[in-house]
Queue: 2 jobs
Job 1
Amino acid sequence: MLDLNILFPSVLNGITTGAVYALIALGLTLIYGVLHIINFAHGAALMVALYGVYMLKEKLGIDPYMALPIMVPAMFVLGYALQRGVINRASHGKDENILLVTLGVSIVLENLALLFFKSDTRSIETAYTLTTVEIGPAFIALPKLVSFAGALVVSVVMLLIVQKTDLGRAIRAVSKEKQGARLMGIDVDHVYAMCFGLGLASLGAAACFLMPAYYVNPQVGNGFVLVAFTIVVLGGMGSFAGALLGGLLIGVVESLGGLILGESLGQVGIFVIFIAVLMLRPQGFFGAKA
Amino acid sequence: MNTLLQIEGVGKSFGGLKAVQNVSLSVTEGRLSALIGPNGAGKTTLFALMSGFLRPDTGRVVFAGQDITGQAPHLNARMGLTRTFQIVQPFAAQTVRENIAVGAHLHLPRRAQALGFAESVAQQVGLSPQLDKLASDLTVAGRKRLELARALATRPRLLLLDEVLAGLNPQEIAEMIPVVQGIAQSGVTVLMIEHVMQAVMTLAQEVWVLAQGQLIAQGSPAEVTNNKAVVEAYLGHGTAERLQKNAARATAAAQEAQT
Amino acid sequence: MKDFRRIALFTLVIGVIPFFTQSGVMLNFVMTALYACLLSQAWNVLGGFGGQFSFGHALFFGTGAYVQAIAQMQWGLSPWVALPLAMAFAAGVGAFVGAASFRYGLKGSYFALVTLAFAEVFRILATSVPFTGAGVGLMLPLKESAANMQFANRAGFIWLMLGLVTLALCITAWLRHSRFGAYLQAVRDNEDAARAIGVNPFSVKLIATVLSGGLMGAGGAFYVQVFQYIDPGIAFGSHTSVEALVGAIVGGLGTLWGPLLGAISLHILADLTRNLFGQLPGINMVIYGVVLIVIVMFLPRGMAGLGAITPLQWLRGSKRSDGDKS
């Protein structure tokens, strides 16, 4: 069982999946770090993005990777609109209601998908779906490698946006001191919406990377939500580095878990970690004390 | 006279910050005493350490002869040690009567009993007309009284009052002082954190002064306010001398005017 | 006392409905409406009175359901014995989750997430373990008789569920007029203030979780008796968790009649939708989600209004109760 020939591919698989997990968690981290809300609709939004990629391929024949320039802005707009139009309005700006409202949004999204697409699991086929690349003793599916690279690139881009741009500066200001930022003339509502938009935009990218190697049904969101939360909590709420490393770690845990416990139980390992971290080390590994 | 609360060498640090350092004091039963000091001195932290909301890094807290160091607040309340909060913490969605009743329930298991006792406590602090108002509808002064009443309803032996007069206008302060006096006279030992000096001078029999986490003076109100170290803690280095010189000059001028 | 008199009246009025109508549609509606009421009432004990919002209440529902099924099919017990057993197991799970969560000071959204995580873990376990029938689930053999808690006429189920709803109402009324209830609501409204005046937040929240879990478990057991089937998705899926909490929030948290109002209103809404649009998958939940958002947006106190807490007050911001820091 501890044969390197079996472990290595499993770990490698875990890392490639983990990179996409990290990308998903990054969006959640950004939203939490700035808006201080736990975006319950994150999983459902990813599901929507996945269906978007699916439809673009099935109806318009657009390759998932080519769909990036469509999906990313589209999800950004969706995020901006959701935050500005629904979440902000419904919660009356009060943090307290937001979890309920994002829950509501996730329910609506998930079941609208159920309504339109039924509960069948769908996946797409591309020319390279079955191509594998040999790395040592492992055969890794090409789409997974591409998603790994892509996820890292997008993560870096997001980090650059937050660190180097004016928007990023505004975001950081708002996350540290909302009132002060407002007094400085920063439109906090706009910044919030931009953050949410960025958070969902990263999901658009993640969907493009995920779809070739994965599948979609209305319920996928649920699984991703908890995985994303686990990563965010593990890495430390609000820490980008934590989200990245956490994502990779979780990906590996899931992969090894599936190897040892069998496919269906693999995910249990993740949730057990989630519960354990929440209870024992809530600040994660990189985060400040909650 | 008995010592009701004794703290010995109590200290607490947050990260690198020493909020409370090696503080020892004894609260005598039946007395009304005050804990004063400039902002950030660590007074509320000391209350938290006494009442069990924080566990001291060093030292002991002894209440009525029993070591209660680090014991949970609700257990301390059951033993007769109750505290109020600097920023009032009402049960906003409940009425005044219901609020106080929660305190009353500590010794009264039945609802009717607790509600009844709540009424009499409300009368003691002057909240009778507001019994059926929602706590969130009260003024600041009202909430302060509610905070007081709720704690009082637990029939405490020692009541730790954290700035019960803060945020009140002079009229309200004047109305609150007799209430606190009444509580002390009814046999409850009171230790109050206060910034309103008028109240400290009027009410307190013994005063401790905390500055930068350390006890720098103790004694009667008059002794403490004349203490040079205390003046400097509040007003800065050298102030005590300056004040004394000014006072001396004023006295001399007055004497000259008289002759 | 007023509350108990009203409960008695309610029970009487609903109880005689089966004598006034033979309509299968009507009886079915009453049965399923009462069922929805129980779920929301159960949630209200912990969420409304305790202020602890659980997003994974299906955890208790599913436990009750599976125990009800397993007790009959594998342990050969009578369903009437299985029912209290199912409730006890669900309450026990409540004790476990509650103890673990509150021991570590979990609150607000963290508590919500943990309950969700637990529900997911149970769902995955139920899918993998043989004695729960794995992914296929369990099917209760049909054997209609009152002794077997499978009533030919809906009336039997109505009375059974009415009994459970009345139990839930009585527990809720007790919360409104007891020291425990006062302590629970105090912890909800301000945990530190409650501690200062002698309330032990841990034990109070724990007991509330146990009560809430037990009632929810009854709902699960009932489901199995009526539909004779249970699988991991139905047992531990989010549908039930959401139904329970939306009903309570819509109706009015922390009130006696709120959850009933909310559950019945949602139920009527769902029925109307089904009549208008047919049996569309997911349409119900879309409505629930929209209603949730709308209620939070415009009517945070729910329908029962006065005296009900708003969802505003539950998330204290700090994840842990760490007392004063000044």
Note: Residues 3-93+156-221 of chain B form a domain with the Rossmann fold fold (CATH 3.40.50.300).
Job 2
Amino acid sequence: MKTYFRKNPMLASGIVLLAVMVLLSVLIPALSPYAATAQNAELRNAPSSFSHLFGTDKFGRDIFVRVFAGTRISIAVGIGSALICGVAGILYGCAAGYAGGKADMLLMRAADVIDAIPSLLYVILIMLVMGASIGSILLGICIGGWVGLARVVRGEIIRLKAEDFCTAARLLGVGNGRILFIHLLPNAAGPIIVNLTLLIPKAMFTEAFLSFVGVGIMAPAASLGTLIQEARSQIQVAPSQMLYPILVLCILILSVNLTGAGLEKTIGRAEEGRW
Amino acid sequence: MSLLHIRDLNVQFHDKEKGQEAVRHLSFDAAPGEIVGIVGESGSGKSTAMQAVLGLLPDCAETVCGEILLGDADITPPLPGESRKEYERKMDCIRGNKIAMVFQNPQTSLNPTVKIGRQIVETIRAHSHCSRTAARRRAAELLDMAGIHDGESQMDKYPFELSGGMCQRVGIAIALSCGPELLIADEPTTALDATVEKQMLELFRRIVQETGTAVLFVSHNLGVIASLCDRVLVMHDGTLAEEGLVEDIFYNPQHAYTKTLLARAKELQKLSACRGDQKKLLEVSHVSRCFAGTGGPGRRDMTEAVRDVTFHIRRGETFGLVGESGCGKSTLARMVTGILAPTRGTVLYEGAAQPVRPGKQNRRVQMVFQNPYASLNPRMTVRDMLEEPLLLNTDMTEQERREKVDSMLTLVGLDPEEAQRYPRAFSGGERQRIGIARALMLEPGLLVCDEPVSALDMPIQEQILELLEELQDSRGITCLFISHDLNVVKRISSRIGVMYAGSIVETGHTKDVYNDPWHPYTKALLSSVLVPDPVKARRKKGMPHREEQKAEAFDAGGCPFAHRCGYALECCYTDRPKNCRFDGREVACFLYSEEYTGKRSRGYRMTSQI
């Protein structure tokens, strides 16, 4: 562990931080005596204490529980959108890159059209139509989110397709599917993994932003964005109410970014042949 | 009186934990006007030593040196830990002014976005105070000295508009721009074609005579060293194995390593035995292939990479295909394997046409690729790679497949124990063996070898060629062997075809073609072969040649070689020569046509016309 930490401090610290955040977000709302939405009129805007670590908000709800309930939503949105965008982007990019020629041209121009419309517009539209929920946020983020990854995958596939080992495989009678998934995709794994990791913080930030603006997760459900929004009115009475969700959001996004940057470095090293 | 004086040069690379000694205890001298050749395998420390002299090594390299003197100046690099500031300042004056360098790859050592004229002018102005017009005049002189005669007009071109040879001439002109006392040339001809290489060596010789600079000429090619250098240093594993006059080294080598190096080179010189029977295995008739240019959908100019090629390969023989880079050899190879479809003409394998989509029937033609680093999937173990064709094409059980892979690895000289490893654990020669094993997995009838040894060191080349010969003897495989290296082709093939600009200009038995070339291009190509024998190499005369050009297929009619040919007739520029056949030999040249030589009787024996 120690040597590993020294070899790639970014990746190690990123993963440790992320693991801690995931663990807290799972355990705290489950084990805490307070529910995330339970109000307590007697304890409004209470400061930090042993029974309420981060204090309470203007309705007397425990902020400690609410912050980690919000982290749950952030992580779910981040990982969920990375998975959906990942699958869509890889398949689309593979199809375009491997087919080449006219099919490639048409597919990529269609992707450009989808990408040309700002993703916020999709999100707000879907919110209006389907109502505010994690599902509709995910859908909104994923409609345009896969295009960047598809471009990366397409580029990699086009580059690898021209390599000699691909020609050799074709001469030996390897079919298209096998060439694509056994010979080409594993060799493109590096850039794909890095891009996939970097989709996560983007989605987390979008979710928090939407909730803050008021078109995302609706009160009384706790999301980091709504928590910050609610604390805004109490900033003169209890500024610490805003501090905690912001801090947690920062640590969360930092940990994912660190993991992504660390992975990029590791993969770069691995591709040069030094593990 | 020596110009460069190096005593006890050591270079060590620090790469994280492991250190690596690249150069150990190297000492030598070079006198003004002397061409010193430095020869050795890749990784023997040739280039590292040269970079150490120039002070261009990266920070992870540790240089410990007794002394380096250039004329009167002391350019000994500081010991590790000492301040490099003063040394760097000193070297800034020395580099360019006193020592200049010519690099291996001419196309990447010039800035592609700046016109060559400006690149030369800027170098001149960086080192001496003179006006722009004076610098431009000097640049034209330098280009003329480097063998570019219409320098004024060439100066307005970008590097990518020039051929590799022309770029290298520009690189030499830049190196000469400040009248250096020492010219370091790091494999300057390795990336060039044989005919251009020969001209380049003549150029180096002339420059030394005219300017009296000393030249350190690094090369792995013994032929180049033999025909150019006065003195030779043989390097092996970072140490100086032997040093001496070129004649002493080549005719009376003392060190064991030099002896093996020369013996390997001599083996490459021998002719291969004739093999094969009369039955035709592969017939290629009137094949052409066009590629659409990049002019956009409106104005597409088609380039014809292969034009009207006809040849056949007999069962069990090795047919060598030789030609300069860009002459369409690889395109032809791809058409033979069926990866590319010919635009016109047919490729018949055992009398049946080659299908374009690789189907069951054309697994009979397999290919060995040029670059052993790109031809193996880096994410598959060797065993997976070799088992894959069996898995897809045969019904073998796992046990049978395993045995087959093991026996194939043994056949190509690798240990079956190593099959679990990934390609990056193997050296270039070993990878090429894996590539050959993979091509042989399905027991093909025809093996297309596209420059299989060009990326390898000379001793490894010989090993791979021996392996191919053994395989041919034991398995009766027919081979189409493609290379730009005449020595290699001569070594392995029983018949050869010479390609120029997309057409085959001459075919025949290797021995006949080599001893008595008929086509002017074949003659030019053969006269540029460099033999590792100083006396013979210097006796060889060059061909009458004209300004070099890119060897592309011309859209206009006429013989593609006419513009470079010293024997061109008027009809050469207007009509395409037909193939003239004389028992077993074919030449596409007007010198051999009936229009030129007159009507011939049936018993007429054609001899060389040039």
Note: Chain A has one domain: 2-30+62-272.
